[in-house]
Amino acid sequence: MKKFIPVLLLALVFLPVMLHAQNQSREELEKRKRELQKEMEEAQAILRETKKSSKESLAQLRAVRNKIDVRSKMIRNINDEIKFINGDINSALRDVKTLQSDLDTLKAQYAQLIVAAYKNRSSYALMNFIFSADSFNEAVKRYQYLKQYRDFRRRQADNIIETQAQLQLKVKNLQDQRVKRSATLKTEQEERSTLEKDRKEKDEVVAKLKGREKELLADISQKQKDQKKIQDLIRAVIRKEIEAARRKEAEELARRKAAEAAERKRREEERQRALAAAKEAAAKAAASNNAGNNTAAATQPAAPVPPPPKPEPAEPEKPTRVYNVLEASPEAAALGEKFEDNRGKLPWPVESGMIIGWFGKQRNADMERVVEENDGMIFATRKGGNVKAIFEGEVRVVMAIPGGGYSILVKHGQYFTNYVGLLSFNVKSGQKISTGQVIGTAKSNEEQSAGVIEVQIYKLDKLQNANQWIKPR
């Protein structure tokens, strides 16, 4: 018994924590369910757009595969929900058994009380019990005992009624949980059935695409050439920015050095003038003393010439080193540091949609020979959907891409973000923009009716892995 008490105390201490964790997990499960439902709606919308094309495409295959992935996550989420419901049912069963046992005990005890009361039902027996006491105080105690006995009997009856009500409530809760489990299981079965249809649809798309594999490989090769042209254009613009910043820094350094040299010259001239004035004053003082008293002048030493004032020590030149020429100003350096602090937390450039391409080489899981290489993260959204800036900065250039819409390059200190594939734009070079500001609309490509936008990230003119900068969802 002594060993059991500490265990019981620990259980009582940690029970609220366990219940809070369970409630929190349930809330997270519900939140994830809502997020997956939204993802599924977006995936279905993108797939509907891609199906408007006259022939199957890799974009359609990506959309179908994304829909399958989201549905698989939904099924896992439903299974987790079923586990919670099963836990609730088991808990309700335990409560029902406990309450039923308590109710049986209370009824048994109350039956005993009723039997005892029946046996002593005559008022004469009660009065005889009180007046047979040896003293008045004992008679009072016997009277109080009988009163407490009646109160206890009434409380037992109330406990029975209350326990019956709790038992009925628990039984109803148990029935509700079972109904909920049945509905959830039905939903899970429906989702699995739909998942099989999605997989069959994917297999059909893959089969048709394999018949056009040479055409697809040629399209990918042409896409890589177009990407290289864009890369060369962007790098040329960034290098131009760097050279302009270097020239500006060199001009600023030359201007600063010229100003410092002029200041040193001015101080030297002032020092020379002060020295000449001191010598002239000393000469005049010596001449005045000789004219007044030659004897005194012969016996007394001449007044010492005051030493020239020491030149003021030049202030040491403060180091002007910065991270690089693009962060020569404190504002630019602060913006670059702030951009770095948001690594992995940058928002999506579209309001809704999905990721259809990741940075780097992406081998198609269904077609081994098909390998795509992306310079950034590619997002699908509705055609003409708003494109937003993923971070504050300054627009450096807006350029037209032959057959590819427009590209907008935004500077963030030593970092740049490039938005490729815009249908239209509403910003201009030199304009300051904020995070989340709409900079244009998404254009659809030849193989996909939905809007597509690619976001590339540079550090100086070096392409960065956008997967590590933009949050996945």
Automatic annotation (TrEMBL):
InterPro entries: Cell_wall_metabolism_enzyme, Dup_hybrid_motif, M23ase_b-sheet_dom. Residues 260-319 are annotated as: Disordered. The keyword Coiled coil applies. Residues 19-53, 89-116, 157-205 form a coiled coil. Residues 1-21 form the signal peptide. Keywords: Coiled coil, Signal. Pfam families: Peptidase_M23. This is Peptidoglycan DD-metalloendopeptidase family protein. Residues 374-462 form the M23ase beta-sheet core domain.
